[in-house]
Design goal:
729 residues, alpha+beta, Cytosolic phospholipase A2 catalytic domain, 16% strand
Length: 729
């Protein structure tokens, strides 16, 4: 089943290259391989991106023999034309069907596959196992998704034959045991417009405050007076794939060196920066050691990474569990997260475990509960459907303690993400769902593949661009049935990369209960294409300002031109209760290097592009070193900002503040989310359980044999197909 995974060491490269959007313009070559039993005829067509459009042939009809391949020239129509024209490969056993012009109705009878640049350069034509019809595949589908789906469904079919009771046994043996399986969590609901933090976060703050107070006094080189209190300082880190991952770690390295890191309460990250912080928070050693062990991981070429993946059968088992438990399963996001885990987390905790699947978000609690580190919070966005409207996005936050959304007014323990809740309680009598791995969550947080094309290409173009989004994460809705939630009627919701809204996670720091005084934001975003240096680097601040205005949140006055040009900008608040902002974009600093220019290196095809997942040690050290340098050479500005925050906090305390605060008015588009249809579909697990009909005595008599069989299966001593033979009738 998995032999096809070894067909080419390019599979990982295909995954990352195809999963991201390439906008480079020029005619290029594609290869098409026919793996069906008979010859096929194929040709390239172009079609306008609108309903009922005709497809016009733009190449000769080419015959591809069984087991052979051909090379075709994929035409390029320029950047803007590509947004209005679809390039498609039609194929058939009947050459006559590939006419010069194919109307909308005829196109329904001829198999085809999209071959735009977003789809890659390698394509396969094969017969589907189910009905023997021709079907087209790109590299992701051929190397990853189709084998994965086949493996999942094979395992599912075996388990369905065995029965639901047997499935209850296998659920706890195939993958690492869930330590929270006996927990019966409930949904924590924000009621009455009041924002409150969970008990664990409040306890964390209590433990962290003495360390923060000591660090603040040391940093400003004076003790705090009786009328002063240490300000709440928060670090924000943007998205930007490996660039943001490395940049965030470099920023923290600089903050640690000047003594400001220990003065902060939160580290809030988004997309690529979450990958670096998530690993650091379970590593258990110094940041210097963590960064050093990271260099060889990201030096590894993507083809070598594929060669290391020897745990895909385990991944299939986990996927089958999600399917049978009724959990929503996203093949692309699951695979993306799994590969991120293999690259960044595998063997990270030698002496504890080497399997990245066993590392989960709650594993970070021992490293932060005594207040040794700022509380890490990871961000994502929620929408009701895979093609959701931008106005429907709501922010979600993931901490080691809790996962939830102020917009949904609902939160759950971090271990219960993906579990099935209704009206605040678990649905199933057997309770626990899967304990989702940290790598799976990393796939969601940095799910660039879930971006919609219409959001990637900004501007008001006079054409239909469509709602294409590549298989985002669809998850059981923890606010399902909660009357306070605007998504109460949705059984499942869609999680996507938070960068689609704002690429710096300001909204999570603006929760009233977090009571923040100073925000230090590191922005590793790519400059917005076509907007030039000023608007490009100030774009995320502008988006944050618009969000704040829309939701009634006060922020200091911001000079966007200055923010885009300077290595560090300080926007001082003059109003108690309004947090000041220090903004640090990822721009060239000649004091650090006269040669290293991040803006030039972030373009598509360059080393610092978000499409690049392989860095040399020198490239990585530049990305780590620049933000560290900027922090270290602006210590006086940081000291002044902390002094200002102390003064404003003292004024705020006179007026009264604390952990109970009114929520800002979260704007909900009228009628957009409240009209969702309730999904009452039953799962394969539910159906099998109803059909089983075993007596209690029958169940007990088979337990010993079932345990023995499943232990052998979990240890790979027997195959899935042989498992059924070992189960008592």
């Amino acid at each position: 089943m998995w032999k096809c995974m070894n067909r080419s060491s390019q599979a990982m490269a295909c995954f990352f290259c195809v999963i991201h959007l390439s906008i480079m313009a020029s005619d290029d070559k594609i290869t098409v391989r026919n793996v069906s039993k008979n010859s096929v005829f194929t040709a390239i067509y172009k079609k306008e991106s609108k309903d009922n459009a005709h497809a016009t042939r733009v190449s000769d009809v080419v015959e591809i023999g069984s087991g052979t391949m051909t090379e075709l020239t994929r035409p390029d129509y320029g950047f803007f034309a590509k947004l209005t024209i679809d390039r498609q490969l039609f194929f058939s056993h009947d050459k006559e069907k590939l006419a010069a012009d194919i109307d909308h109705e005829q196109a329904k009878t001829i198999p085809w596959i999209g071959i735009g640049s977003v789809r890659g350069t390698k394509f396969w034509i094969a017969e589907k196992k189910s009905d023997k019809t021709l079907h087209g595949y790109n590299a992701i589908e051929w190397f990853f998704l189709q084998p994965l789906k086949d493996g999942v469904m094979e395992t599912v079919s075996v388990i369905n034959m065995i029965g639901a009771y047997s499935w209850l046994r296998i659920r706890n043996t195939v993958v690492p045991i869930n330590p929270f399986s006996k927990e019966r969590p409930t949904v924590r609901v924000l009621s009455g417009g009041v924002d409150t933090l969970c008990a664990q976060e409040r306890e964390f703050i209590k433990n962290r405050i003495p360390k923060v107070t000591k660090a603040v006094s040391s940093f400003i080189e004076r003790p705090l007076t009786d009328k002063e209190e240490a300000p709440r300082i928060v670090f924000l880190f943007s998205g930007g794939a490996y660039r943001a991952m490395l940049g965030a770690l470099g920023a923290i390295q600089g903050l640690q060196k000047i003594g400001l890191y220990d003065a902060s309460m939160y580290n809030i990250s988004l997309s690529g920066s979450t990958w670096g912080l998530a690993g650091y928070m379970v590593y258990g050693k110094s940041l210097k050691e963590y960064i050093e062990q990271l260099y060889p991981r990201i030096e590894m070429s993507t083809d070598k990474l594929v060669a290391r993946i020897d745990r895909l059968p385990d991944f299939i088992d986990q996927a089958a569990q999600a399917y049978l438990k009724g959990d929503a399963f996203s093949y692309v996001i699951e695979t993306f997260g799994f590969l991120l885990g293999e690259a960044l987390l595998r063997d990270l905790r030698k002496g504890i475990d080497s399997d990245q699947r066993t590392i989960s978000l709650p594993d970070q609690i021992p490293y932060i509960e005594t207040g040794e580190h700022p509380l890490p919070i990871y961000s994502a966005a929620i929408t009701k459907t895979a093609a959701g409207d931008p106005t429907d996005y709501m922010w979600a936050e993931f901490s080691p303690y809790e996962i939830g959304s102020v917009g949904l007014r609902s939160f759950i323990p971090s271990y219960a993400f993906g579990w099935d809740f209704y009206k605040g309680a678990l649905v199933r009598a057997d309770g626990a769902g899967l304990l989702r791995s940290l790598s799976y969550l990393m796939g969601i947080w940095g799910s660039a593949p879930s971006v919609r094309l219409k959001d990637v290409f900004p501007g008001n173009y006079p054409m239909k661009m469509g709602d294409l989004r590549i298989d985002p994460a669809k998850v059981n809705n923890f606010s399902f049935g909660i009357s306070q939630s605007p998504m109460a009627e949705l059984k499942r919701i869609v999680f996507i990369d938070g960068g689609i809204s704002i690429n710096v996670p300001f909204p999570l720091v603006w929760r009233p209960a977090r009571d923040v005084d100073l925000i230090i934001a590191f922005d590793f975003s790519e400059p917005t294409p076509g907007q030039g240096k000023i608007k490009g680097y100030g774009a995320q601040l502008k988006k944050a300002q618009e969000y704040a205005k829309k939701n009634g949140i006060e922020i200091p006055d911001i000079n966007f031109d200055s923010a885009a040009k300077k290595s560090v900008s300080y926007f001082k608040s003059t109003r108690p209760g309004v947090a000041s902002i220090i903004y640090i974009p990822f721009i060239k600093n000649e004091g650090f290097s006269k040669k290293f220019d991040p803006e030039a290196e972030m373009k598509v095809g360059k080393p610092l592009s978000s499409l690049n997942f392989s860095y040399t040690r020198e490239q990585a050290k530049n990305v780590v070193g620049l933000p560290a340098y900027v922090v270290e050479h602006n210590t006086d500005m940081f000291k002044q900002a902390v002094e200002d925050a102390i003064e404003l906090r003292a004024q705020k305390l006179k007026k009264g503040s604390g952990l109970f605060a009114q929520l800002p008015a979260i704007t909900i588009p009228e009628g957009s989310m409240s009209k969702a249809q309730k999904d009452d579909e039953s799962t394969p697990y539910d159906d099998a359980l109803k059909k089983l009909g075993l007596t209690e005595d029958e169940k007990k008599s088979s337990v010993e044999s079932i345990d023995k069989a499943f232990k052998a299966y979990a240890q790979r001593d027997v195959s899935a197909k042989d498992l059924k033979k070992m189960i008592p009738a």
